[in-house]
Amino acid sequence: MIKEEIRKISQYLYENLGPGHKEKTYRDAICLELQDRGYTVKTESPSSISYTTKNGKTMIIASEKVDICAYKDGKYTFLEVRTMLSFFNKKDVDEVSYLKFRKYLSSLGLENGLLINFPFPPIPEVEIIENDGIK
Question: Are 96 and 129 in contact (CB under 8 A)?
Answer without folding.
Answer: no
